[in-house]
Amino acid sequence: MRSLRDTGPSIWMATSGQTSYPPLAGDLSVDVAIIGGGITGLTTALLLVRERSTVALVEADRIGASTTGYTTAKLTSLHGLTYASIARDHGEEDARRYGEANEAAIKKVFELTTQSGIQCDLERMPAYTYAVDKRLVGEIEREVEVAQHLGLPASFATATDLPYEIAGAVRFDGQAMFHPRKYCLGLADLVTREGGRLFEMTSALGIDSDGVLATAIRQRAGSGPTMWCKRRRCRSSTPSASSPQTFRVTAKGLRFLPTFASPRNVPKRRRPHPVHPVLLRRAAALRDRRRGRPQSGKAE
Fold first, then answer.
1. If residue 186 lies in a helix (H) or strand (E), which one and from where to where?
2. 195-209: pLDDT as tens digits
């Protein structure tokens, strides 16, 4: 685990225990394979195990040691000035669903923590989005108005615990803060005790073109045979010294369901605007500089 003496330390990593789940060491067939051992992956694993599914979760690093281990540690349905823009661009019903989903997630964390006795310093606190510029108060007030209309715990505030004055803030009551990695370690313990399997230091490399979750796994530590499984038919071979130590894990009959905003599953009127070409050129120039390549075109 990292400590506070490390470069880029995380207090959550420095104040939680170590994990030692094994890497994947061969072929495995399960109902559901989950990639990523953060809050989302572990919660999904636990809920599926409790629904009598066989579950395997693979994590490229250690449990809760990536995004979750370096997060802000707040649980809130207030994300900047979100609801006014969602209601404007996608309609009031989508904005309401967004808020309800986030409030349900907070409720689920309290439910799992209370029922299972997870010690993660969880406590209720208000959340704020504030502005110090008086010219932005109108946007703050609009966000409060929309959030209240959607049934969210919103109010307008002019004072916080910050050591300086603010012009105005959106306040959401009933939000929370916690120790995110202790929470993840508690979830991981529940998953394994209830029949799920966790594999650390195991990187998922891909999903096959048909959408069946036939995931390639790279084992960072140790050695062994290479197992290739695709569409439920498997063969194994011993790799040469120069080939990577890899494994595949197949989830029988499981379809990969896209849940992100790709052009294929978002209605045309809701697709995000494309990235501006100037931004693409700047990104390419920055990448070339980092790789030591000569830049082409005019400087922006």
1. helix 180-193
2. 999 999 887 776 655
Question: CA Rg, the chain, in Å?
Answer: 23
Structure tokens at 35: 């990639």
CA distance 18 to 5: 17
Task: Calculate the alpha carbon distances from 182 to 20, 46, 114, 185 in Å.
Answer: 15, 16, 14, 5
Domains of the chain, with CATH numbers? 1-73+179-257 (3.50.50), 76-97+117-176 (no CATH)
Q: What is the pTM of this model?
A: 0.71
Residue 23 is given by DSSP the state P
Cα gap 195→32, rounded to integer Å: 13
Structural tokens at position 172: 């959401």
161-175: pLDDT as tens digits: 999 999 999 999 999
Q: What would you measure as the largest C-alpha separation in the chain, in angstroms?
A: 67
- CA 162 to chain CA centroid, Å, is 29
Distance CA 228, CA 208 (A): 12
Q: How far apart are CA 142 and CA 167, in angstroms?
A: 14
CA distance 84 to 82: 6
DSSP conformation class of 281: H
How far is the C-alpha of 148 from the C-alpha of 96, rounded, in Å?
10
Query: Residue 49 burial (CB < 10 Å; 0-12/13-18/19+)?
Result: buried
